[in-house]
């Protein structure tokens, strides 16, 4: 499989998938997964690759039946025969609509049935934006993260902005469970932000028609004595 640009992750954001949108670097998402189809396209040059290339970097869940996980089917209005529904164009491993003698089935399993071969991670069901403030340098960065990620995974994202991210203690202002005040608390790297007491309030803002960037939570990183090697 062609190596992905950037580190492999457990979850990807739609924006990260959208960055891989060429025939030589083709990612798609569907049914909750993220798939690198670059090698599939290289091995199947021709018109059947065109719909996948056109959809590179996009979510194609609407192509598939969520129950069978096969491409959707319909009754052809001309022939009254059930066949795969491909308004985007017939794509790799979808059989011809009519019987033909030259249809090669030597590929074995259709690629969507052998999806684990191409899957590189999961698509985040919801993302959120956080600010990471380096207390040592007073620098602040804003990053989009999957809500499902644990803080240790968010730290891996922050490593792209700060090579010494592993040498910092992470804290945030969270509500004191014993009162109505807020306190700075060290965050547990093995928990999500929500589990650490840093809720995602974006849905509340959306419900009240308030801009979602009105308040973005801040994660404070405090430098430890032992710097890791960059």
UniProtKB/TrEMBL annotation:
<dbReference type="GO" id="GO:0046872">
    <property type="term" value="F:metal ion binding"/>
</dbReference>
<dbReference type="Pfam" id="PF00173">
    <property type="entry name" value="Cyt-b5"/>
</dbReference>
<keyword id="KW-0479">Metal-binding</keyword>
<protein>
    <recommendedName>
        <fullName>Cytochrome b5 domain-containing protein 1</fullName>
    </recommendedName>
</protein>
<comment type="function">
    <text>Radial spoke stalk protein that binds heme under oxidizing conditions. Required for the coordinated beating of multiple cilia maybe by functioning in a redox signaling pathway.</text>
</comment>
<dbReference type="GO" id="GO:0005930">
    <property type="term" value="C:axoneme"/>
</dbReference>
<dbReference type="InterPro" id="IPR001199">
    <property type="entry name" value="Cyt_B5-like_heme/steroid-bd"/>
</dbReference>
<keyword id="KW-0206">Cytoskeleton</keyword>
<feature type="domain" description="Cytochrome b5 heme-binding">
    <location>
        <begin position="9"/>
        <end position="92"/>
    </location>
</feature>
<dbReference type="InterPro" id="IPR052320">
    <property type="entry name" value="Cytochrome_b5_domain"/>
</dbReference>
<keyword id="KW-0966">Cell projection</keyword>
<keyword id="KW-0408">Iron</keyword>
<dbReference type="InterPro" id="IPR036400">
    <property type="entry name" value="Cyt_B5-like_heme/steroid_sf"/>
</dbReference>
<keyword id="KW-0349">Heme</keyword>
<keyword id="KW-0963">Cytoplasm</keyword>
């Amino acid at each position: 499989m062609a190596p992905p640009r950037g580190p492999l992750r457990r979850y990807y954001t739609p924006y990260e998938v959208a960055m891989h949108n060429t025939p030589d670097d083709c990612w798609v998402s569907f049914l909750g997964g993220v798939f690198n189809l670059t090698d599939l396209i290289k091995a199947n040059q021709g018109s059947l690759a065109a719909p996948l290339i056109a959809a590179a970097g996009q979510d194609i869940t609407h192509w598939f039946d969520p129950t069978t996980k096969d491409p959707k089917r319909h009754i052809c209005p001309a022939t009254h025969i059930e066949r795969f529904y491909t308004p985007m164009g017939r794509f790799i491993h979808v059989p011809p609509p009519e019987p033909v003698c030259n249809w090669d089935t030597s590929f074995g399993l259709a690629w969507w049935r052998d999806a684990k071969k191409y899957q590189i991670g999961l698509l985040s069901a919801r993302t959120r934006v956080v600010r990471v403030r380096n207390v040592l340098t007073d620098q602040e960065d804003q990053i989009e993260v999957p809500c499902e990620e644990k803080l240790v995974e968010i730290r891996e994202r922050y490593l792209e902005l700060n090579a010494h991210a592993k040498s910092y203690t992470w804290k945030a202002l969270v509500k004191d469970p014993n009162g109505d005040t807020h306190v700075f608390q060290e965050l547990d790297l093995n928990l999500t932000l929500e589990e650490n007491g840093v809720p995602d309030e974006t849905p509340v803002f959306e419900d009240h028609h308030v801009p979602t960037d009105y308040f973005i939570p801040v994660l404070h990183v405090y430098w430890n004595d032992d710097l890791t090697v960059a």
